[in-house]
Write a structure and sequence with these properties.
heterodimer; A: mainly alpha; B: about 80 residues; alpha+beta; 2 helices; globular
Chain lengths: ~400, ~80
Amino acid sequence: MASPTFISSVKEEARKNYIAIFEQDWPSWLSGILIAFLALLIFLWQSPWGIAAGYKNWGDWFFFAVGMKTTKPSLPWLHTMSVSNFGLFSGALASALMSRQFKLRPSPPLEYIKGVAGGIFMGAGAALAGGCNVGGFYTAIGVFSMGGYAMMIGLGAGAWLGLRYLLWEMAKFPPKMTTEERSSKRVPSRIDWAKIQPYLGGGILFMAVSIFYLYSFLDKTQMGGLLFFGLLIGFVMHRARFCFVRAFRCPFMTGDAEMVRVVALSLAIYGIGSAVIKWNFLQPDTMGVYHPFWIGSLSGGVIFGFGMLLAGGCASSTLWRIGEGHIKLMIVLVAFAITNSWLNDFLTTSGLEGKLGKGILVPAVFSWPLTMPLFLLVLLAWVLWAVWNEKTEKCVIF
Amino acid sequence: MDMNAIKPDQTLDARGLACPMPLLKTKKVLKDLKVGEILEILGTDPGSKNDIPHFAGKGGNEFLGMLDDAEGFTRYFIKKGA
């Protein structure tokens, strides 16, 4: 073997790093830390991170287009959460392409029906709770809104119910067994598509950054930033397959506590950062505290939790799984957006909104010094329960 | 181990299904297997590449390995343990 030249060793190093960063899955704890960090940047940059409001904006446009809504919704590229959603989707798509995992992924018909139902449940749940698993749970707890805890309990209960349903469905439609003989050859590296994918993915990253500069050039730097942070979140989420659903589902399904640990870790970092921001009044302490405690948050959580089990994704993982090409989740997104837009407007016009509860700032009840240990204790209790359950499988229902 | 030489006792077709269905069905089918029998799972969800080996390594079962098929799905092999 010839001794390595400068160029060949750089190439070798670049190749190794490419595989480690862009092809191999990242550990989920790393994504938990990164997501907390990025969510804090969004908080500082503009306002706390959410997803469902962006879906609502898209749903609003549907109703405006069919003439059922008379006021024009804000433009999707100038609506904060719609923009960060575009970013999240682009980041996931870029990551999927760069790891050569993108392809259109069809599902059996029953899955599509569950996609519609799951989307409707999640859209309705997010409308009631004033946010999805991100805005209503993750961000809500992080910005010390009481509703986040109610939704957390609701999500757990909903996930339990959803899993019950899936078990019933499996009894009704037994797993498909096959008897055909097979012998796999090593995958012949399919020339064109697999080779082009990483370039397309890199192109998308490049384009997104260019669009950020374009926003900035047009004096909309704030919007551009949201696109950029969303892009990074989507990229991280896909790289580590970060999934909130697992945190609520797995304790009942396999007993696995991994995602509970990761979400709790992420929340602890996010909450501490958010306390630095709020306690010190870098941002108003009531910012992002509007989740209807407790009727709205709790009932919304249950409905959302049930829906995410049917859909096989929450608000965030629906978006990054679409970036990977899952057709079922595209259906979920449409059903989510339309239901959420409709129910939100209905709750407002019917006046029911005021009956669901109101936003309560946790430190307003417990004071800041007491809020912090309580906040960490709740997370710790959640992790300890999950770890105990992993060992004993006491809460595993099948 | 040569995966192609494995003769599975049962084959679960989870192609086209996404998380959590492949794992859920694997767990169900595995329950009805006898100790020592081998289950093959066919799947297309990229998430399964972490989920199934991770799950299969627990509870006394043995994860034998996985194999990418030329037709674009992955085959997983689990040996039922006590």
